[in-house]
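chain below, 146 aa
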Amino acid sequence: MTTTQKQTFLTDMLYVLQQARAFREYNRLCPSGYLGSGHPFETTVRNALIESSLSFLRKVNEFFGKNSEASAVAFFPDYQSQWLWTKEDCELLNNRVMHLSLCHAIEGDYDWTVFLATHLPEAEKRFDEFMSRVRLEQPELLTSKG
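prediction:
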């Protein structure tokens, strides 16, 4: 990747992290919901934020876990790729959120707030470490779009 491409990609990844935090921030800023507790759309808004946050958290997992041109390895070839969570958690997310499946009908509801609360801090930690390395070794990525 060129420097400009890395800057753009880095900007996109920072947006991904922000979106992965969306549900947590929504709960922090709007404890009774944006529309107010009991509003008919409140459940839809809440569920949309959970699913969006999970979807973006999945992207963070791929960024740090894959060894590809769309991962941390693209910035640092010596980066040791490591998934944020277990294969079982990846399958849980894929089967119950990312893909249509019978899991909900067979196994019932799943409390994704625990999943987010468990995995988001590790994603944030990895981003902090990654950004520290960017600032130290590739500060030019932060001068324009980054």
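The radius of gyration is 17 Å. The CA atoms of residues 12 and 125 lie 18 Å apart.
thats it, cya
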